[in-house]
Amino acid sequence: MEIIKKLVPNFTKGRLDRIGKVWKPDIIVIHIGEGNLGAIYKKTFGQIYSTFVHEEYSSHFAVGEDGKIEQYVEETNTAWGNGIMDRPSAELIRQRGNLNPNLYTISIEHEGYASKDITLKQYETTAQLVKEICKRWSIPIDRRHIIRHNEIRKSKNCPGKIDVGRIIDLANFTARIPTASFALLPDAGLPWFIRIFNSISRGGKW
Is residue 72 a contact partner of residue 49, using CB atoms and an 8 Å limit? Predict the structure, then answer.
């Protein structure tokens, strides 16, 4: 899985809280970027990348409509995308009280807008990215640890129409079958769940 690094200056080095504890990321937060990854800003920067360069805001990754992945902040560092809490509903966020969620989260943005669902390629790529992140940090691939941004900040309509459960299902599928590759699944062009079902019906071989 190719990741294009375009590191930005807006982040905090490490994951150290105010009392000296170093946190390990154990939650992945799904965002919608409300913009694109293409050459828009001054014909040089994509809208999402430009935001992270010029504003005090950032996420670790972004997934383009074509499945391209850009990385803006290293996973070992603290991005600035989840720090504002507003009536959080996610269980782990609520349990940790006023602790800044940026310290223990990894954020994934998506090219596109809240009014429209992301592409099939984005779902497939995000699922693979989630699987790899969870493997690196021993994060369970479940709804408790992979959440929507508006489960931290209720006032935000983020990530819009993205189906987090669908990402989790796809990530779990590839985790159970390490050789699984969406590009190799038969019946290309059919919906993802039909392709998986057909593959399993054939004995999981492709």
Answer: yes
φ/ψ of 103, rounded to 5, equals -65, -30
Q: Is the pTM of this model over 0.85?
A: no
Instruction: Name the one residue in this structure whose structure tokens are 């905090």.
Output: 12
Q: Which two tokens stand for residue 111?
A: 């090219």
Tokens of 51: 């935001």
pLDDT of residue 79: 96
pLDDT digits (tens, 9 = 90+) for 80-124: 999 899 999 999 999 999 999 999 999 999 999 999 999 999 999
**E-strand spans in 154-202?**
none
Between the alpha carbon of residue 145 and those of residues 104, 130, 142, 195, the distances in Å are 11, 11, 6, 26
Q: Is the bond preceding 159 in cis, omega lying within 30 degrees of 0?
A: yes
- Residue 54 phi, psi dihedral angles, 5° rounding: -105, -10
- Quick one: 18 exposed, middle or buried, by C-beta within 10 A (0-12, 13-18, 19+)? exposed
Return the structure tokens found at 87.
């009536």
By the 8 A CB rule, do 181 and 170 touch? Answer: no
